[in-house]
C-alpha cells in the first residue's frame, strides 16, 4: 500500500468513526471510488480527496513541521544534560513559512533554545516552584519562530517538548468545492455501488477553527452525482455534511 493509499485509509477510518453509518465491512483495495462500504446486500462507495489550496505552500509547511519535530528531539537530548525535570517548550510560530528550514537554520534554532535554558536566571529556578518565562527571538533568528515560552514542574522526572504547528486560515471558497466535485464526478464509476459519497479532507496544513463554518455549510450546490458530500477536518477530527 503506497503512502497516498495509507493516508486515505486513515481518513476513511476517521470518517467511519465519526459518521453514523452502519456497515459490516469495508474494502480499500479498489479505485474510483477509493473504498467500498458493505452492509447486507447494499454497498456504498466512498471517494476520498484532500483539499489544499497551494501544494507548494503545503509542501513547505509540512517540511517545516517535520523539521521542528526533529528540533524537539535534538533539543530534548541536549536539555537532558542540564536537568531531568519535566520541561515544556512552547514555540509561538509564524503562520506561513516562506521556505523550508535548512541544516544551518535547524542548528541555530537548537543553539538558541539551549542557550536560553543555560541562562543563569533559568538555572536558578530549575527544580523550584512552577515558573513560566518567555523570550523573543531577534530579527535575525525570527524567520520561523517568534517567541518561546519555558515552564517546568518540580518533582517530575520526565521531559517533554511540545510545539504549535503552522496552519493556514480562511474560509473554503465555494468555487473551490465546485471544482473538486465536478472534477471527481468525471472520474467516478457510479455503477459499482448503490450510492457513492465524496469525502473532502481538509489537510492539517489548511486547518483553522473557521475554515469550515456556517458560511461553508450553507453553500447551495447544483445537482451532483454524489449522493452525499462530507468535509472532514483531519486535525480537529470534525465531520460536516454539505448541502448537495
Task: Give a nutshell description of this structure.
This protein has 244 residues and is α+β, with helices and mostly antiparallel strands. 32% of the residues lie in helices and 24% in strands.
Molecular structure report:
The strands form two sheets. This protein has a six-stranded mixed beta sheet with strand order 1-2-3-7-8-9, with helices on both faces. The chain has a three-stranded antiparallel beta sheet with strand order 4-6-5, with helices on one face. It is built from six helices and nine strands. The protein has two domains: 3-53 and 169-241; 57-153, no CATH class. It is elongated. The chain has 244 residues and is an alpha+beta fold. 32% of the residues lie in helices and 24% in strands.
Regarding quaternary structure, what we see is single chain
Order of strands across the main sheet: 1-2-3-7-8-9
Low-pLDDT stretches are none
Number of helices: 6
Largest sheet: 6 strands, mixed
Whole-number mean pLDDT: 81
List keywords for this structure.
244 residues, 3-stranded antiparallel sheet, 6 helices, alpha+beta, single chain, 9 strands
Sequence-ordered SSE layout with sheet pairings:
Blueprint: H1 3-18, E1 25-27, E2 35-39, E3 42-51, H2 55-79, E4 86-93, H3 103-118, H4 120-125, E5 131-136, E6 145-153, H5 174-185, E7 195-202, H6 214-217, E8 228-233, E9 238-241
Parallel strand pairs: 3-7, 7-8
Antiparallel strand pairs: 1-2, 2-3, 4-6, 5-6, 8-9
Helix pairs in contact: 2-3
